[in-house]
Amino acid sequence: MSASYSDIQPQRQTRNGLAVASLVLGIISIPTLGLLGVGAIMAIVLGSIALNRIKKEPATHGGKGMAIAGIITSAVSLLLTATVCLFAAIAVPKFYEDIRHMRESAALNSLRAIHNNEMQFSAMNSRFTTLEELVEAGLLDKNYVGGIALNSYVYSSSEVSEKTYCVHAVRSAPAVASRDFVVCEDGIIHFVERLRRRDHSLRRIEDSRLGEARGRRRARLFLLFPLVVFHQSLHAGRGAQK
Q1: What are phi and psi for residue 146, nearest 5 degrees?
Q2: How many CB atoms lie within 10 A of CB 206?
Q3: Cα gap 86→21, rounded to integer Å
């Protein structure tokens, strides 16, 4: 005896929208470093909610495998994000510090060359001179005068007389390097901060160190946040599977 069409019950479709959303966000989060962390966290939350609903209502909700895959891929993206942020926190300050040292080295070399030119001019004219006159004599590049920043330093002359001169190399902005320099007729290059602003520079160094310590603490908290979220999501996923 064959069954009639009226006896056939239609199969219910399970809902898996949350699981699909978790998986899609998890996959996208890997190449985009967690969509700035927000996407990965959302994927973990959606996956955990999906697992919880699958456990409570297995007849109407499905996609357990997709939800688990979404949580795993999102956790991996958070770990990658933490790794990249840690590398950047170490490499970027070192990169800028190297640039500042290169600028200071260029300023020191320029002051040595200017001193040699001053000595050459003094040997020919029995006196020292200004930077502008060195340019007119063809002993110095014109970019060193007129307040033009050369390699982030501005050069100027002072205390010019028959037997004395001083040339200053001053930073065009405080952030481009750490120190200003000055060279006089003895050829010794001095740090201006140590000569004229010792107390102020020491206070600024202490403030800078304090700011760096605070920045390191904030960076550690930022890097630990994805790990905490990952740990909590794993516990939520395990609780939903039981």
Answers
A1: 80, 15
A2: 10
A3: 29
- 73 burial type by CB count under 10 A (0-12 exposed, 13-18 middle, 19+ buried): buried
Q: Are 174 and 180 in contact (CB under 8 A)?
A: no
Helices 64-125/198-241 angle, 10° precision: 170
Tell me the pTM: 0.56
Return the domain boundaries, the chain. 13-90+224-241, 94-214
Picking from 160, 47, 154, the residue whose alpha carbon sits closest to that of residue 111 is: 154
pLDDT at residue 60, rounded to an integer: 82
Q: Which of 161, 156, 158, 171 is nearest to 201 (CA)?
A: 171
Q: Rounded to the nearest 10 degrees, how much is the dihedral formed by the CA atoms of 10, 15, 20, 22?
A: -160
Q: How far apart are the first and last CA of the chain?
A: 44
Query: Looking at residues 138-158, what average pLDDT do you find?
Result: 91
Residue carrying structure tokens 């909610």: 49
- Kindly state the tokens that stand for 185: 């007729």
Residues in a beta bridge with 15: 61
Q: Are strands 181-184 and 189-191 parallel, antiparallel or unpaired?
A: antiparallel
The structure tokens 């520079």 sit at 201
CB 164 within 8 A of CB 184: yes
Sheet holding 149-150, edge to edge: 149-150, 153-158, 166-171, 181-184, 189-191
Which of 51, 42, 52 shows the shortest CA–CA distance to 21?
42
For the segment 133-148, the average pLDDT, to the nearest whole number, is 91
